Amino acid sequence: MTAIVLENLSKTFGKTLALQDISGQIAAGRLTGLVGPDGAGKTTLIRMMAGLLGPDEGSLRVAGLDPVTQGSALAESVGYMPQRFGLYEDLTVLENLRLYAELRGLARADYRHTLDRLLEFTRLGPFTDRLAGRLSGGMKQKLGLACSLVTTPDVLLLDEPGVGVDPVSRQDLWRMVQALTGEGMAVIWATAYLEEAEQCEDVLLLNEGQLRFAGRPKELTSRLEGRCFSLCGSSDKRALLAQVLTAPGVRDGTIEGDRIRVVMDAGCPAPDIESVNAVIPVSPRFEDAFIDLLGGGPGGQSPLADQMPEVASMGDVVSCQNLTRRFGDFVAADSVIFRVRSGEILGLLGPNGAGKSTTFKMLCGLLKPSSGEAIVAGKDLSRFATDAKLRLGYMAQKFSLYGLLSVRQNLAFYAGVYGLRGREKKERIRQMVDGLQLDSLLDSAPDQLSLGFKQRLALACALMHRPPILFLDEPTSGVDPITRREFWTHINGLVAKGVTVLVTTHFMDEAEYCDRVALMHRGRIIALDSPDRLKARAGQGASMEQAFIHLIEAEPDE
Amino acid sequence: MNSRRLLALVSKESLQIVRDPSAILIAFVLPVLLLFLFAYAVSLDIRQVHLGVVLQSDSARAQSLAADFSGTPYFRVVPVRHRKEVTPLLVSGELKGYVLIPADFDRRLFRGDPLIQVITDGTQPNTANFVAGYTRGVLVNWLSDHGLQAPIRLDARFWFNPEVETRKFLVPGAIAIIMTMIGTLLTALVVAREWERGTMEALLSTPARIPEILLGKLLPYFGLGLVATMGSTLLAIHIFDVPLRGSWAALLLVSSCFLVPALGQGLVISALARNQFIAAQAALFSGFLPAFLLSGFLFEIDAMPAPIRWLTHIVPARYFIESLHSVFLVGDVWSLLLQDMFAMLGLGTVMFVIARVKTRKSLE
Amino acid sequence: MNASRLLAQILKELLSLLRDPRARAILVLPPLLQLMIFSFAATLEVRNATIAVFNEDSGQPAETFVSAVTHAGFVGRVIPVFDQQHQDDVIERGEALLALHIPEEFSRLRLAGEAAPVQVILDGQQANTAQVALSYLQAIAMAQADAEEPIVLRHAFNPNLTYQWYVVPSLSGILSMFIALVVTALSIARERELGTFDQLLVSPTTPAEIILAKCLPAVLVGFVMGSIMISAALLLFRVPFTGSLLWLAGALGLFMVSVVGIGLMISAVSKTQQQAILGAFAIGVPMVLMSGFATPVENMPLILQWVSQAIPLTHFLVIVQGSFLKAIPESVVLSHLWPMAVTALVTLMGATLVVQRRLS
After folding, report:
1. In what residue span(s) does the ABC transporter domain sit (chain A) (predicted)?
2. Which stretch of DSSP H or E encloses residue B146?
3. Which residue, A55, A425, B319, C337, has most beta carbons within 10 Å?
């Protein structure tokens, strides 16, 4: 049965073409992924299905209704969860649920039963009286989903529900959604993450407002059969990746723990590189197919890193000694101990609310430890602030850019704040602009940039003073795979020069880039090891995500 | 209109008000502060104005006139011997004016020449006017008491406010300012906040209809406005000693009528500006300042130039302040109140039509 | 303190204030528009008033008196009434500011050379206006006497009591205060909401530099706007200027520094922009009310008079009014400068400390 029919849909905003001639069908009782890079038109399409935007051309029918003319009937049969789900942060979990139950006209007789079921489903039962603003990111998403499910809609529209959600919560979300399709509901899940897309039954792949593929993910993936390999090398994995990406016929390459995964052009054999010991053919993934469809991944050279001087090795660059932070009774970070060696990438992973950000903030000097010490670049940050700060770069999740200043002015500002002046300042800015290809955008405002360019600009600002230590706080949240590869190319290049990187992330493919991963849970570090060894702990052939869930669930409940 | 959905929206909004510290600040703390300031700090009352008296004559008559200046509650007399000493005091603002009683006072009295000189500090015209008026009053009374002149005696009676205390008209007027803040500023901010936080998008996708969403916003703030009115009125009566000569029923009725355009204006602003900063700016500029300056609260509308006078007709606070003065100080003058209520409801209807047209169930 | 770090931040603050033409317009136009409207609207003069006349006397002296009153400059409209009830109604309904009741025996008493009473009923709801009108009436009544006016009245500094001579210079202080207050109140709160504040805090810059960098551009903007409005007072409204422009400029600068200090204090303690806006509002309005703009400071209770001494606007108003009309001597200017300096020092140090405490 068909739940949604799209016919030649087009939509423009000002001069931007958001959607162009989209036609297709979405089946009931199935999970359909709406996939595409940042700015592909996913949100526009979903809003049209929800009746919040009208098409400029073409028509659509959702659950047999025309969203433009039958808006009020449509609202009864469509559940919609916007990107930033509209939870009222000053209402409790139960009050939020009640509000949407009333608005959607849930029958009084079903009240108790439905709410109990949803609370159990979301595992939010113990938190009914907590304010929504105090929930962790994952819990918010689950509550948001529950709010759009208080009545059983025919069509459920979810706009990037997985952003900022840790693997454990993401697993919960999937479980919930799969149960729903079993009941005959059509679920549309928009995402830029291809691991999620791969689990969908059908996908619609959008790029720059055009529909590039519709069908089962397997269909797309199967085109790459025989073109994917896992390389085991003796040299440094980052150097190897850079080498692999410059080899002829390579479509895409990523780091997976100690190995390199490559996708080759059709008909090309695996690259022949001296330091590679073993080439193992692997089955293609949806992500490979996606990158292939969009023209392949970016190259492995980072012109930015090439300009950076070598950083002398200095042993342990960061060390935490019993770092503890309390907020009232709540212990956000509990005797955290770890060291980071010079030229290493350390990943900080953990469920939402595990204490990653708190630890991070203490290391950057944004938060004072309740007890314990954080030594960065040989200095105690709480005492020698200005000195040590010149040696660290920081890039926040929200890309801290001044929206009211142009790109050029942002760069000049950060150069100045780090004490650069005169010719040195000009030269440094020039290098950043060249290294990150920002020249055409120098006079635009950061707000007008795409997510990818914002990320580049934020990186340029954080690196202006050539810090030997780089702190990255969820640097690629909400970013599509191609942009993420570009970003990591730069980071890999920097690390090759001896820069030390600390990164927090929710993405397992990002964790694969790390030399070591520290897994945090309830304020403590429960595991600290290389990605491959962590995976091995969860059993033969386990993925990073499985390892994560395995380790968290092995912890005793409190 | 579905009563169940409406009720859910109303109770949601009420919970948010109770939990939002800035709503509490605007609705309860600021009103008390403003009432207090209008009762005590902002006073146009002429009491104890510093007045210099330069007494150059030693005659008994001149001295008795000087004593009369000291005898009124309006002036606090600073005796000065020489004229030269007065000018610096006038420049520094320590004196608001002075009276010069010349050496030949008695001779002037006999010849019918001008008797005294009054010099005021003209930089503050209002005070200067009072000094001129009250010194003249003192002299006229002195002349008539001594049987020296038979003037026209103005027998003045201030109705509704016999002690002529500005507090009695400023405190009721302040209620209008407070209600404007709750109705316009707070409403504009909370609707803008729903757009900013993305909750409006979620609401729009539910079966709730636009009138329900709008009404769900308004009813709680309507209630909050009435509660703030009642609280302010109780303060006014019991703490600031302002009489309530009309009835509570009339007071609540005109307040309700005023809340219609005030809330409507808040909705219009937030429908046009989906951003809290711009909403706050617009609410201040189009709501608060006109209520303060163009409503007859502090400044007499009749004295303004004609174009500004016309402008005041579209300021709802103008009608509300007139009604409030009447209910507090005069009584229930229904002929006046009905006229004002009609005007406020008319303005309110216009606001709501604009708000309804501008808020569409879409994100475009 | 590092010059290039400071310069970069000052430039950043200036650009975020002025780069966007729309932001520039929002900053500059409303205050100028307000200056234009309020200089005409904010007047305590009595003009164009409606009065009621209930004349029971048909004699010549009564006619002369009534005619003198109805032709007086402050009267706009006259409602003739013919009985007590109608007279009371007119006052009750607020239609007339005052009612003049001339009794039957008025002319007889006047001709007999005796004191002749006239009843004036004033609407006490408008206490201020009513009192001013009464003083006008008194002057008219006095002029009816055959003898020469017994008072020689002169208004020093402002002979015709032109209200705008008072309002326009004062408004230049009030409006530029609000500009500087809002600009600075938002500055830290906005960076905090957008996340750029953390980025600043991880850089080597110090809290003192952050505060100083936020202070200077706001002072500059407030100073320029204040100067524009003072120039408007001079050139457009033609208010006479008798003091020293140099001293006034210095006072305006110091005034802006102290206001910016208050604004930064608000900003440093607010968590969100909404709190900052409402905070600036909740502090700014009482400051205007207690500054002596609307009503003289001496009229306030003693405790509030002390509070008003801590408000920079109180002192600036004395200086700006004095500089325009009173040729205010330097010693008086100085005596009002140091309280502003104290406020500036306390608030700026306070804001620095709040930022510092967040850091450590």
Report:
1. 4-233, 318-547
2. none
3. B319
Say which CATH class A224-300 falls into. Answer: alpha beta
Q: How far is C70 from chain B (nearest CA, A)?
A: 16
CA–CA distance, A99 with B199 (Å, rounded to integer) = 12
Contact B276 C274 (CB under 8 A): yes
Q: Please tell me which residue of chain A has the smallest CA distance to B19.
A: A90
Token pair in block for residue B230: 């009642």
CATH 3.40.50.12780 fits A305-391+467-554, yes or no: no
- Three-state DSSP class for residue A382: coil
Using one digit for the tens of pLDDT, what is the confidence trace for B135-192? Answer: 988 888 888 888 776 677 888 888 888 877 888 888 999 999 889 988 898 888 888 8
- What does the domain layout of chain A look like in residue ranges? 2-220, 224-300, 305-391+467-554
Which residues make Cβ contacts (< 8 Å) with residue A261, sequence separation at least 6?
A228, A229, A230, A231, A253, A254, A255, A282
Q: What's the CATH code, domain B49-145?
A: 3.40.1710.10
Answer for the pair C134, B133: CB distance below 8 angstroms, yes or no: yes
Nearest chain B Cα distance for residue C154, angstroms = 5
Q: B321 near B178, Cβ under 8 Å?
A: no
- Indicate the class that CATH gives domain A2-220: alpha beta
pLDDT at B118 over 90: yes
Strand partners for A345: A501
* Residue B209 near residue B1 (C-beta atoms within 8 A): yes
Helix (H, G, I), strand (E, B) or coil at B8: helix
From A495, A221, A486, A522, select the one nearest A351 (Cα to Cα): A522
Q: pLDDT tens digits, residue range B186-245?
A: 888 888 888 877 888 888 888 888 888 888 988 999 999 999 999 999 999 998 889 999
Instruction: Compute the half-sphere exposure of residue A129: CA atoms within 13 Å on the CB side of its CA.
Output: 0
The pLDDT tens digits for A276-320 are 888 888 888 888 888 888 888 787 788 888 888 888 877 788 888
Distances (CA, A) of A340 to A319, A363, A475, A506: 6, 12, 19, 20
Query: What's the rounded Cα separation, in Å, for the pair C150 and B139?
Result: 8
- Identity (one letter) of the amino acid at A205? L
- Residues in B closer than 8 angstroms to C282, CB to CB, are 25, 29-30, 33
Which residue is closest to C197 within chain A, CA to CA?
Answer: A400
Q: Do B104 and B135 touch, CB atoms closer than 8 A?
A: no
Domain boundaries, chain B: 3-42+165-358, 49-145
How many angstroms separate the CA atoms of A355 and A352, rounded? 8
Q: Give me the residues of B, 199-238, that contact A with CB < 8 A.
A: 199-209
Among residues A386, A397, A383, the alpha carbon closest in space to that of A474 is found at A397
Helix (H) or strand (E) holding A348: strand A345-349
For chain C, domains (ranges, CATH) are 28-42+161-359 (no CATH), 49-143 (3.40.1710.10)
What would the mean pLDDT of B276-303 be, rounded to a whole number? Answer: 84
- What does the alpha-carbon distance between residue B117 and residue A453 come to, in Å, rounded to a whole number? 78
* Token representation of residue A207: 């790029």
Are the C-beta atoms of residues B135 and B101 closer than 8 Å to each other? no
Number of helices (H), then strands (E), belonging to chain B: the values are 17, 5
Q: Structure tokens of B17? A: 């008000």
Closest CA in chain C for residue B101: C151
CA gap C359, A383 in Å, rounded? 11
Q: What is the secondary structure of C229-292 as a DSSP string?
A: HHHHHHHTS-----S-HHHHHHHHHHHHHHHHHHHHHHHHH-SSHHHHHHHHHHHHHHHHHHTT
Name the strands in the sheet holding A78-81, side by side, starting at the edge strand that comes first in the sequence: A78-81, A155-159, A186-191, A31-35, A202-207, A210-215
Task: Report whether A114 contacts A106 (CB < 8 A).
Answer: yes
